[in-house]
Amino acid sequence: MNFYFFIQYAVEAEAKLEEIRILLASQNNFEPFTTYKRLDQPRTGGLKPENIYEFLLDNEIQVGQDELDYIFRVLDEDSDSLVTYQDFKNAILPKMNDQVKDQALNHKSYDLPVDMQLPKEIETQLSQFFIQIKQNYLQYQQIQEKIDLNQLDIYDNDNQITVDSLKNWLQQQGEDISNEILENFVTIIQGQQQQLQILLDQIYTENQEEQEQQVEENVDQEQQQEDQEQEQALQEDQEQFLQEEELEQVQQKDTDQDENDTQQNNQQEQQSQEIEYKSLDYKKSKNDSYNDIDYQIQQLKNKINKLEVILGQKNTSPIGSLLKNEYNRELLNFSRMSYQRKFNPSSPTQKNDLIRQQLRLDEEIKIEEIKQKILLTQINNSTNVHSSGFYSNRFQNQIFQSPLNQSKSKYISDNSGNKYIGSNRKQYPNFFQKSINFSNRKF
């Protein structure tokens, strides 16, 4: 039913535009190319919607964006988004009156400077032409639903739109339109479905809007997809960065732990070395103290050996035996003390005892040295040396026995080993002579 009204609106709108075309082409000052230059102020050779909008503003014609777009689509017959001079000429010249059309084409063009308007009557008629296109658009908007030609049976056997095919369709719909209106409608669309579709596309831009919307949606989807990919890549980069940072932290912790372990090991080594050094120093000090005592004992032993060599008694002498026994006794005590020190470190008291013992030994050594000197003096003055190692002279009893001891002693011994009682000088063999024949000893 919408197509029924569309046929009437299309014929009426085209009739009004044709009337303005004839009036404009009938003007003596009208020339199509000069009129085109009036709209093409930049002189680019192609009109755009903003060029038409400037002309409408100059003539105080208010239009909306939808109305301006419709005016531009009516002028752009080849739909290339640019109104050339050929497009403008086909839209502005009469379609039903060839005589007036030829008359307008025969007018000579004239120079029109930039920003200069056409003659008043030409400017006014051209403004009326655009106003009528705007009104036609508003009238078409009364048909709210879009017309789908695939649902209309308005074609003949040759797939052409004719008056008869339109009548048959109208009879099926129960409607009737005059033949004159149908003939004008067929002339407008040139009997072709393609031309009718172009006319409908000029009025209803939903397809284009849908296409644009679809394109925008596709662009939005692509943009969203790119954004998602970028976000995903950013998340992956962040995760990789976090992983690298965690790995660096773990490595740093390991490094710190290794450094701490190394420091601890170094400290332990230093402590162990210090302990070893201290123990070595302690042992050295102990060994030094032991070595000092050993050295002193060895010195005493050497002195005794020298004295025995001087006396000619290398084997054994009473004094040498005495000193040797004393040395062995001290050495045994010292070995026992050294053995005990291994388990019981010496205390300061023990050290003091050692010092006292050392002093005592020094004193005894001095006494023995004095005795040895006295003996050497006696030896040098003596003429009788017994084989037993005992010396006899007139001063012997005076050196070793005091008068008190001589008076108290029961026996008086001589240098031969015999003892006498009192002054009788009776010989009594001693126990040593009874048991061993001294003269027959073998060495």
Number of strands: 2
**Structural classification:** mainly alpha
What level of helicity do the residues show? 55-70%
Work out the helix count. 16
- Strand order of the main beta sheet, please? 1-2
User: pLDDT under 50 segments (min length 5)?
Assistant: 207-211, 383-416, 418-443
Instruction: Let me know the average pLDDT.
Output: 75
> For the CA atoms, what is the radius of gyration?
76 Å
Distance between the termini: 168 Å
Largest β sheet strand count, sense and barrel closure: 2 strands, antiparallel
What shape does the CA trace take?
Answer: rod-shaped
Strand content: under 5%
Q: Tell me the series of helices and strands, N- to C-terminal.
A: HHHHHHHHHHHHHHHEEH
Task: Provide an overview of this structure.
This protein is mainly alpha-helical and 443 residues long. Among the domains are: 2-204; 384-443, no CATH class. 69% of the residues lie in helices and 1% in strands. The protein has 16 helices and two strands. The chain has helices spanning 2-25, 32-39, 49-58, 65-75, 85-92, 98-105, 120-140, 163-173, 179-189, 193-203, 206-311, 318-343, 348-381, 396-400, 403-408, 431-435; strands at 411-413, 419-421. The chain has a two-stranded antiparallel sheet with strand order 1-2. The protein is rod-shaped. 11% of the residues are buried. Residues 290-317 form a coiled coil. Residues 209-248 have a biased composition (Acidic residues). It comes from Paramecium tetraurelia. GO terms for molecular function: calcium ion binding.
